[in-house]
Amino acid sequence: MPIPVPSNRPKEAKLFRNNRSQAVRIPVEFELPGDRVLIHREGDRLILEPVKTPANIIELLAAWRQEPPPGPDDQFPDIEDPPVRPENIF
């Protein structure tokens, strides 16, 4: 199947409901790679960008460097974990 050439002209798309979310049918010529997008608003516009997954370990580490450092809510909680006691199972 040939890949459609994207057009610079706007094209009308259909909005519909999917459970409690609003969804949009994206025409094939505007199809995005992958299965997830980032969405943000600029005025009245909604901007969709494909989520780029790192292609190798170097890109993954570079992406992790951009993350904010862990805060107090990101730490493991202290839990009471008593040692195991022998059980009589007979």
TrEMBL record:
SpoVT-AbrB domain location: 13-53
Keyword Nucleotide-binding attached: no
Taxonomic superkingdom: Bacteria
Span list, region Disordered: 65-90
GO molecular function ontology, one term from the record: DNA binding
Keywords: DNA-binding
Record flagged with keyword DNA-binding: yes
Pfam families: MazE_antitoxin (PF04014)
InterPro entries: SpoVT-AbrB_dom, SpoVT-AbrB_sf, VapB_TA_antitoxins
Stated family: Belongs to the VapB family.
The protein's name: AbrB/MazE/SpoVT family DNA-binding domain-containing protein
